[in-house]
Amino acid sequence: MRIALVSGDGLPMSGLLTVFRNILETGRELGLVDGRVPTDLGYAWRPDKEGYFPAGGPRPLHSPWMEPTRQSLRDGLDDAERGRRLLAVRDAVAAWDTLDAGARAETGRRTAALTAPFEEYFTAWLAEHRPDWVVAINMTLSDGVPATAGLHAAAGAYFADRPGGVVFWDHDLFGSCAIRDPDTGARVYPPEPNELTPLPQDTPHTRWVVISEGLAKETAGYPTDAVPEVLTNLLPRVPAGAPEERHREFARQQGLAEGRPLLLDPVRVFQVKGVDVAVRLLAKMKEVARAAGDPVPYLLVFGGLDEDPRYAREVVALSERLGVAEDVRFLDGVPLSSFRDGEGRWRLDEVDLLRLAASRAGGVVFTPGVTDVETMGLGPALAAVAGMPCAVTEYDVFAPVYGEGFGRVRLGTGEAEVRAGAAAFCEVLRRYRAGDAALREELAANRRAVEERFPREPWERFWRELAEAVGE
Questions:
Q1: Is there a cis peptide before residue 54, judged by omega within 30 degrees of 0?
Q2: What is the pTM of this model?
Q3: pLDDT tens for residues 423-449?
Q4: Would you tell me the crossing angle of helices 79-94 and 145-158 to the nearest 10 degrees?
């Protein structure tokens, strides 16, 4: 099968793309997926991602399977004006319930004017790449309503007389993604769909997948006859064994001294992800470790500093103020596959970073700054597949995803709670270095739990169904 990909995130590196890589590898292992994947990363309709709108940022992509595609639109607008119009539509869609009839009509006209070029774009994109199936990640959210509407229209025409279609694959939906504008406090997304937000429909060329039962339950109230199927995320396989030369070289290049544990923070540097909480935790752990004569951990943050520059500046300033700037590494976006860049420096992917951290008796910190945005949160699962301990702040869907019995250090975000969590996590890392038998059993139980909760078989079945639908 020929697979294409459209991402609503507007970023070249995200957890969604990493999970898609795991799923794609499953399809390849089954012999059902051919060649590279033409990919539109959504730059052209995400002006809120200033460093990437409209054609991507300076960071080079490196993937053995991704084939980035053109981003130009024939709409007669310059980038600045298109960005203003797209954001105006996004904000009006989010505030739909407060708009009067005139404002709603004007928003509808603006949306239609922006949709036509996107329909033309996706029509040409489909004709050029001729996929059997398009995987559309997080396109149901209203970041780019004109782009989503254009994709629906173009795909409806393209697949009207041929097998295949679009798999709408949603990790976030309206009510469960309560991201707010940091200046105004207004929701970025409406709490539920409205007449301007395109939804997957029950058609022969549409499959709709969500990652959790909670999201499926939310869709029950949506105005569509489509019913999504629940396919949970797939986790990577993390090989056991000693680090290899690329891991050692990466550690030298990053100035990671031997004997110090590595704490991975597998999130973007974006406010709701709570990187500031992880930095505060590290500062307290540094105090505890020094007092006990233990090695001070490093904190490796996966995200780059250019997605949310204002928040990134706050986090960097916080690390300097707390005296841990020398202990934090911002990895500038973790690639989908490890590679050596043009300056000869290694950029390690998620699997290699997990291997390196495990070899250093480290762990994972996962510290959402709010409780109601994560719909799954894979940080604890990544710790489990690598056999490492984790420290986690409380968030709403932790228990439904992992179960209350999942072993972790529980964190709060208040000063006293962070201090207590730091002491507890330092003790866990001490036991981890010592090979404590009870901790080893707890970590093994975590691994068994995530293997059960994130099974591979449903995705194998899904790939076979897609192949059967197109006669392969």
A1: yes
A2: 0.94
A3: 999 999 999 999 999 999 999 999 999
A4: 90
